[in-house]
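If you are new to this repository, start here. Below is one unmodified record pulled from the training split, so you can see the exact layout before writing a loader.
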Amino acid sequence: MADHLGAELVVPPPTSHRSLSLGVKYSPEMACLPFKLALGNMIEALELGADAIIMPGGSYGCRFGYYHKVQEAILQELGYDFEMVTQDLGMMHMVKHVTKGNPLRKVITGFRFGLAKLKALDKLEQLVYKIRPVARDKGEASRIHREGTRAIDNAADYQALNRARQEHLQKLINLPTESIPAPLKIGLTGEFYVLIDDFANMDIKAELGRLGVEVCCPLSVGEWVRFNPLAIVLGLREKDRSHKAAKPYLSGTVFGDGWQSVGEKVLHARDWDGLIHLEPFGCLPEIVARNIVPSTKESLPVLDIICDEHTAKVGVVNRLEAFTDMIQRKKRRRV
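And here is the target side for that same chain:
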């Protein structure tokens, strides 16, 4: 969208151990992992020459709404000269930074093209979740996914976007598969950031695919960003359905994604073989959800994984292996 509107967008490097080190070094000790990683991303963007940072903020009911205030103060103390652009300064102020004074028609065109790319990325991601567990070469499925993501990112118009999407979807479909029983279906729920950021969650989706598990993750960047008034009115969004399912156990929002985390277990107890709940250390909405989920009457094995700077991938993988093995044994006994 920014490229289409002629705005110069500074994209920091993919989140890495350096991003984490920078975030941990300058963040308050008890700040959650998303805060620390976002701060590290900001420092890396400022190092690349960014002079403004657009960051959500406001009355979100959890600490996320106050991130930008603390991050701005930290970065200013470090000597960076920049502007923190948030909803606090007014929505039109944010729009002005992104649109660079372009006419409304061009803004709408750019926004629609951005949403089209998000939709293509979501489709590619959902397909790799299904193909990876049954593919003979699981690494090749992941490679095609990365290649497709780059091709969609580089697409300059709708024709190139459709070509990139179809080409890589077809490559995934054409991968040789193994003749094995239907893979386990395990859902992922929890706090939004650690669900979508592969570095924060130790690349859990690829690791589950390597173990022969089909990942079910209703929440994605595209789902979070897309705004469909009709779906909202009719209550057809996954978020609305999970909130309704959670009501016998949690009657109202606890902010963040805690309400949805409870509802996903209730909603998909019959569809999924297990559930993995991801949360940053100290995330209050997910602490509430974690303590309610075991008490629901719906029977579904649940694995809680808490993410912070001390979480080691080896430990997470060992827990995933034990969890999937337990579910497989239980499923075989039932059969």
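Two things worth knowing about this chain: Residues 17-99 form one domain. The chain has three domains: 17-99, 103-180, 182-335.
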